[in-house]
Design brief:
Elements: E1 4-9, H1 20-28, E2 31-34, H2 40-43, E3 51-54, E4 57-58, E5 61-62, H3 66-77, E6 82-87, H4 97-106, E7 111-114, H5 119-127, E8 140-144, H6 151-162, E9 166-170, H7 179-185, E10 193-198, E11 206-211, H8 217-224, E12 229-233, H9 238-255
Parallel strand pairs: 1-6, 1-7, 2-3, 2-6, 8-9
Antiparallel strand pairs: 4-5, 9-12, 10-11, 10-12
Helix pairs in contact: 3-4
Length: 256
């Protein structure tokens, strides 16, 4: 017996952001292999008869190595008709999709990829924050902390930022100590707005506004407390950050 693997993006966390197609596939799945960033509310939507296998990886805590996940995927699809590989956000962005597709292609196993709402778009929608605008920030760059290890690459990012475009940094609080100082070293404006968003779209969502020069990486990591986090950098986000800071001041005045 040989079945089919369906890759499903679970969205940024809020189960209401799961697509209708993804929900339907989860109802029909025989087995679901799910990642660490898939929230319990999404897992609760999976029927009790369905076998659920955790294959999550968080920072240095990996339940399975990628090679083991690949082998498990092959093993399950040879035993079941419908195997779902459930990943947080969108399977097409920073989700090791290419690695797993290569294994299936080599084994000539059919698969399907369903789009999910990205962490970035979910975050922006939850904040009411446009990611691009005609007047400021017509481009958007999506990166991870590894992008900033090399100063030459940081210079390329600086050019992008200097055009008024926005930059998103996924997983910034995992081994990202070099990101902010390297950007400053290559000459990025210390006043550049920085927005940290944690657990976007969930009731526990929280955010902190600052700028590149004033940001304290250790403090930002403590604020994120190991939860899913994204950085947004750029002048195109300045209006939102200014409004957020003003709201915080007004709230403080109201409390007192």
């Amino acid at each position: 017996m040989q079945g089919k693997v369906i890759f499903v993006g679970a969205g940024p966390g809020n189960p209401e952001l799961l697509t209708l197609e993804a929900y339907q596939v989860l109802q029909e799945a025989d087995v679901v292999l799910y990642d660490a960033l898939v929230g319990p509310e999404v897992l609760d939507l999976i029927p009790s008869r369905t076998q659920k296998i955790y294959v999550g990886k968080r920072a240095t805590n990996h339940s399975h190595k990628q090679r083991e996940i690949n082998e498990l995927l092959l093993d399950m699809v040879r035993q079941h008709e419908c195997v779902v590989r459930l990943k947080g956000g969108d399977t097409l962005i920073y989700a090791r999709l290419a690695d797993e597709l290569a294994v299936l292609q080599q084994a000539r196993i059919p698969y399907q990829v369903l789009a999910g709402i990205t962490t970035l778009s979910g975050t922006a929608a939850a904040l009411g924050l446009p990611l691009t605008s005609r007047d400021c920030g017509s481009e958007l760059l999506i990166t991870t902390v590894s992008t900033y290890s090399d100063l030459e690459t940081c210079k390329a990012v600086m050019t992008f930022l200097n055009r008024g475009s926005g930059v998103a940094i996924y997983m910034p609080t995992f081994r990202g100590q070099h990101v902010l100082p390297n950007l400053l070293e290559v000459g990025v404006d210390a006043e550049l707005p920085l927005l940290l968003v944690v657990q976007a779209t969930l009731p526990t969502q929280r955010q902190q506004s600052t700028n590149l020069g004033q940001a304290d990486y250790d403090q930002l990591c403590a604020f994120s407390a190991g939860d899913p986090t994204i950085f947004l950098l750029g002048w195109s986000f300045a209006n939102y950050i200014s409004t957020a800071m003003l709201s915080k001041v007004l709230e403080s005045v109201h409390v007192h």
